Amino acid sequence: MPLNPNLNSLAYFEAVARTGRVTDAAAELGVSTAAVSQQLKQLEEQWGVRLFRRQDRRLSLTLDGEMLFQTTTAAFRMIRGARSAVLRQSDNRQLSMRCSPSLAVRWLTPRLKNFLDLNPEWGVRIDASPDFSDFETEAMDLDLRYGSGNWPGLYTECILNDYVIPLCSPDYRNRTRDLSDDPAAQIAAGRLIHSVKARYQWDLWLAVQGIDLPEQHAPLRLDRSSMAIQLARDGAGVVLDSVTLAHDELQRGTLVPLSTAFAAVEFPAYWVVCPARHMNRRIVRLFIDWLREDGSLFQTAARKTLERLGCTIRPAAPGEPGLL
């Protein structure tokens, strides 16, 4: 067997093993099926083993083929990741980032012009997605993530604490007050809107408050905070969600706390996440510095808004988000 395997034939082998068909691999590689078949034949001859068996017009891997595929597919994935990293570094006038969708729409984008005005020579690409970046294979500089901050092996910094409190429209609040003067009874009688990806869920909040719901309860469940907040603003119920994301509505008065008897719970929620090596890029440092400053200003404004509305603020207790 040759000391140095033919990388071209290994690339053809990996494509066929991954797709299961010579024709699909040829289309992906941009070559003829005959070229692929010839490379596979040469590889089997060089290695002295059978790598494929044919089953119902598809190719399946032999035991030797499976062993080779596991190695080659990992190697080519790493090579593709290295290529993406090189291309990202060569594009030194653009920041590429991924951000939680609701935060991107409701908090980041309205502030982004300020960063661009301060740094007009830089471009910004934002992928609003709930999926975290795979920094080894994707050309992403950083993530702005919602979560606990527990991402081992990565640089993490909390940019924003969040405040969570039951919110509803003014009309909905007035209707619940007509039913009872007791805030707990107002919650129990109301329709609860669940933001299912939020860290602080109704079940935990109700347990902390000692509130039991009636057996006949019809909750509303949405997988985006932006949708849950919109539904609450429209008067459909009461949502336990982010003051950060609902701050504009609270300032305009289209959303209000259901009752100031309930304190807003504060916990670290939004994080910059990236490999430590990415901090060597000037644009990454500039953007994080800007986020840190703007986040601090926003937190001060959010606290003042809650205080103006008569709400108290308490830190999350053990067992609640932020102190798990």
TrEMBL record:
<comment type="similarity">
    <text>Belongs to the LysR transcriptional regulatory family.</text>
</comment>
<keyword id="KW-0805">Transcription regulation</keyword>
<protein>
    <submittedName>
        <fullName>LysR family transcriptional regulator</fullName>
    </submittedName>
</protein>
<dbReference type="InterPro" id="IPR036388">
    <property type="entry name" value="WH-like_DNA-bd_sf"/>
</dbReference>
<dbReference type="GO" id="GO:0003677">
    <property type="term" value="F:DNA binding"/>
</dbReference>
<feature type="domain" description="HTH lysR-type">
    <location>
        <begin position="5"/>
        <end position="62"/>
    </location>
</feature>
<dbReference type="Pfam" id="PF03466">
    <property type="entry name" value="LysR_substrate"/>
</dbReference>
<dbReference type="Pfam" id="PF00126">
    <property type="entry name" value="HTH_1"/>
</dbReference>
<dbReference type="InterPro" id="IPR000847">
    <property type="entry name" value="LysR_HTH_N"/>
</dbReference>
<dbReference type="GO" id="GO:0003700">
    <property type="term" value="F:DNA-binding transcription factor activity"/>
</dbReference>
<keyword id="KW-0804">Transcription</keyword>
<dbReference type="InterPro" id="IPR005119">
    <property type="entry name" value="LysR_subst-bd"/>
</dbReference>
<dbReference type="InterPro" id="IPR058163">
    <property type="entry name" value="LysR-type_TF_proteobact-type"/>
</dbReference>
<dbReference type="InterPro" id="IPR036390">
    <property type="entry name" value="WH_DNA-bd_sf"/>
</dbReference>
<keyword id="KW-0238">DNA-binding</keyword>
